[in-house]
Request: fold
Amino acid sequence: DCGAVGEALDMPVYAVGGFVRDLLLRQENLDVDLVVEGNGIAFAEEFARRHPCRVRSHHKFGTAILIFPDGGKIDIASARMEYYLEPGALPTVEHSSIKLDLYRRDFTINTLAIALNGKRHGELLDFFGGQRDLREKVLRVLHNLSFVEDPTRVFRAIRFEQRLGFHLGAHTESLLKSAIQMGFMSRVSGARLFNELTIIFKEANPLPAVFRLAELGLLPCIHSALTLGERKRRLFEAASQAVLWYEFQHPKKVLQRWEVYFLCLISDLDYRAVPTIARRLDVPARFRELLRAQRGQAHRVIRQLARRLGRDQEPRPSELHRMLSGFSDEVLLYILARLSDERARQWVAHYITHLRHTSIHLDGHALKEMGFPPGPLYKKILSLLLAERLDGRIHSLEDEIALVQ
Ligand code: CTP
Reply:
């Protein structure tokens, strides 16, 4: 119905970018991007008067987001009407502003647009050979300065290349490589770099893109000590297995998969290098805390488990619980991926699927009713009971009461 709103406001409206690309590739894409020739915010507000949705506007950029009750979103941008005066001729306006908007984009495959109203209603606009490049499965920039203007496009190129199974056009590849060689990546702000990296880690299968980052020499742009040798490749593969296994076990849980892969990426960095990389990437506070506290702790547990293996000494369930209960699921999967021995992996997997769900019957209230004075003793009693229960020495409420008394 965007067309009708555009019609009413006399503003040409186009569906653009990734949405059109994926439509032609017959791939699902729920993010709709619109470009309005005129005032995009006015368009969004009119749309919201007619349909149940909220508008979030950014006046500085002339953009708005429509947010629907089911969580769906439509991004709206304004293409300014621009009049080109050729000497002695009338201004040529038709499509010039949508064309200019599309020209500013990263790759030809992202420059396709579908007109949603006006006399071109339903027409596919292809100014820069996007359809040909979709057919040929090739990524091409629109002009030579594309990567220089916006070096994050290097990451985007790798992401699209690997996700869509495309390849870089020869000229585009050489532009990309020279942007890297000429040090343009160092201009990218930490937050944008972190964003691009995590978007790659959130791909359905991020491994090929990660390996390609390394092949193109992009890891040292993030931190000079970052490498991707055979060992780390295997670690990434193990992490991907662990993630798949976990998601199969817990289909309803939302796992921050990118955190697992991020930990893999920096797995061999000295702990002193971690704050440096966190600063360079402007890592959000919550994740910085995870890197600071849980990462070191995880490495200690990995060493402990290795020692147990060395001594052929299986940890008791209560010991596993004590070692592992402080970690987030993401860190547990990282630990799982780091363990090369099948037996140790089984210990951790057993913790994730069973041990950590173990509970006891008694709680603080019950202890109070039994006459124990409230205080730190409660915690001790309860964790002792849990340990006994985990190790199979007690089984029922009666056992718990008997033990406490
Ligand atoms: N874009 C760009 N340069 C960037 C980022 C984005 O030119 N550094 C353009 C692209 O042409 C893209 C559009 O802005 O089509 C919207 O960006 P985004 O939503 O990130 O891209 P999608 O193509 O929708 O990619 P994805 O499928 O990964 O969401």
